[in-house]
Amino acid sequence: MSAPASSPSMTAPAAAPGALTTRTLTLLAVAALAAAWGWLPPFTVTLLNYIGLHALVALGLVMLTGVGGMTSFGQAAFVGLGAYATAWVCTAPAVAEALQGLPPALLPWLGLALGLVLTALVAGVLGAVTLRLGGHYLPLATIAWGLSLYFLFGNLGFLGGHTGLTGIRPLELFGLSLADPRHLGVLIWAVVLLALWALHNLLDSRTGRAIRALKSGRVMAESMGVDTGRLRAQVFLLAALLAAVSGWLYAHLQRFVNPTPFNINIGIEYLFMAVVGGSGHLWGAVLGATLIALLKEQLQDWLPRLLGTSGNFEIVVFGLLMMVVLQRHAEGLWPTLARWARRAGVRPAPARLPAAAPLPTRPLPPPGTVLVEARDVTKRFGGLVANSKVLLEVRAGEVHALIGPNGAGKSTFFNMISGVDDPTEGEVRLLGEPMTGQPSRAFARRGLARTFQHVRLLGQRSVLDNVALGAHLRGRRGWLASMLRLDRHEEAALLAEAMRQIERCGLAEHAHAPAGSLALGQQRIVEIARALAAQPALLLLDEPAAGLRHLEKQALARLLDQLRREGLGILIVEHDMEFVMNLADRITVLDFGTVIARGTPAEVQRDPRVLAAYLGDDGLGGAA
Ligand code: ADP
Ligand code: MG
């Protein structure tokens, strides 16, 4: 399929021609700042420089915490790494001696390289150790490393101890000295704007879709083929590197460093900035950095007057203010600002994507091929046997139904054969390959796609975006390509494929609506569209018809029948017996985790054990 990307079905409803767009507004703001830069009073320039430096760190936190769902109080330590690395390179006599022949103007750039490498190493190790921690342990770990690095800076003799290092050379760029804060500020804000642009691009891409799923949809994302552990480590690294760049710029702005600005207090302040600004929004980082800087300015004036001392009371006031702000604006202030702008007629700029070429397809296994095979699969939860020696296979070109009363172990079995959970005993084979111990993304890679009994969508993202995540493994482009917008052809193809599946499932009119705004039954269909976007050979559907109206069920049955004729194998858990009996080629009946019957719908309906298990359940009687 090749649809021009600008066709109305592909892009979200956007600005009418001539209307003010967010992009225009951003460009105007940047132009205004650039034009005023030379005339701003030195005090304002300094303030803006600090806002830029803080915004860089907060941007990393927006990605890490707001988007990725990992809280860190320890970012200040990475700022310190960036600052100390360049400070050391620029001031250590040993370095000067070793690099005698080199022009001294190169030293800060070596310092940057060292800072980035060190940060990558430290973040790599810390990430490997701490990112596995769930719940409150991760934030606690970030406090621990924030404190350790801070004390390390203060206790290393060659870093000047608590006095720090002075006499750091100014930056030079193309032979121009950036000793004047006004000149360095241009570089600072260029870096901030570049980071904003690159991260905006990143979030609007295949990788970005996967990152957005880290916060609330890890199990789901893994089932779509995303390596969420690796992705978390990468986001963590990104945030750390942004902090290190901020530290590097800071060192050359201040021209001296000591441990104080890399204290855990400051780490908490960075988190304030991201959260108050709007931790899920990139521009929230700039807003948060601005607000906190202005506030701090005021507080440093007022608090000593009010309290008569110059203690560190800002942090207390910040904490209280943050609670007040989050009471009223749970997602920070940026969404409120964005809402005002929308009300004033500002619209997002229309997405421009090139024409989409079809995604590469892979041939389905020939009809009759055994796709998945469960051999004596047993699952125990403590003393409870949820699955007991279940034998089942699904072939290409058939609809196989798994039925049984509530609690029979159907969903548990789905998790066993899709890699979400491991069997206690027994073996699962996918297309002949033993899958023991493999993660669910490996199942996805081999052609399995599934839906979940309890819908797992990103409710705030559009239906289109959710479905496109299903096609994750059909794309290749990664971080750099996305940041630099080199992924547009592939992105257009992924979105076109998602749109095709949405249309096929009858949800075209909802494509741009937030997935969470749909009725629950429709959300289940979105999950089917997402699974189909993966172009699976085997489809697992856990109660897909629950919550659907009669006509919608008929449409679903037609769709599944068509997929079967195309050669997919489908395993379906469903309680609507009429639906199951009319659709399925074969049925396996589970009761208390054990298979009590298997066969064609006619055979199963006559089976006395099945009738006994369903006694009183009018579903089976209704269809018989
Ligand atoms: P079904 O999908 O057939 O309604 P499930 O597979 O969800 O049944 O559950 C089968 C049994 O396993 C139930 O008794 C349920 O309480 C139990 N169970 C499911 N998941 C877990 C779990 N993670 N921990 C403990 N018990 C579980
Ligand atoms: Mg279930």
UniProtKB/TrEMBL annotation:
> What are the alphabetically sorted keywords of the record?
ATP-binding, Cell membrane, Hydrolase, Membrane, Nucleotide-binding, Transmembrane, Transmembrane helix, Transport
EC no. given is 3.6.3.-
- What stretches pass through the bilayer? 20-40, 46-64, 76-96, 108-131, 143-164, 184-203, 233-251, 271-294, 306-326
State the Gene Ontology terms under molecular function: ATP binding; ATP hydrolysis activity; branched-chain amino acid transmembrane transporter activity
Which InterPro entries did the record assign?
Answer: AAA+_ATPase, ABC_AA/LPS_Transport, ABC_BtuC-like, ABC_transp_permease, ABC_transporter-like_ATP-bd, BCA_ABC_TP_C, LivM-like, P-loop_NTPase
**SUPFAM superfamilies (alphabetical):** P-loop containing nucleoside triphosphate hydrolases
Q: Which CDD domains match?
A: ABC_Mj1267_LivG_branched (cd03219), TM_PBP1_LivM_like (cd06581)
Residues covered by the ABC transporter domain:
372-617
Q: How does it sit in the membrane?
A: Multi-pass membrane protein
Main localisation, per the record?
membrane
Q: Where in the cell is it found?
A: Cell membrane
SMART domains, from UniProt?
A: AAA (SM00382)
What PROSITE patterns does the annotation carry?
ABC_TRANSPORTER_2
| Entries under PANTHER family matching the protein | ABC TRANSPORTER ATP-BINDING PROTEIN, CONSERVED COMPONENT OF ABC TRANSPORTER FOR NATURAL AMINO ACIDS-RELATED
For this entry, the protein name equals Lipopolysaccharide export system ATP-binding protein LptB
Which organism does this record belong to? Answer: Tepidimonas alkaliphilus
**Lineage of this protein's species?**
Bacteria, Pseudomonadati, Pseudomonadota, Betaproteobacteria, Burkholderiales
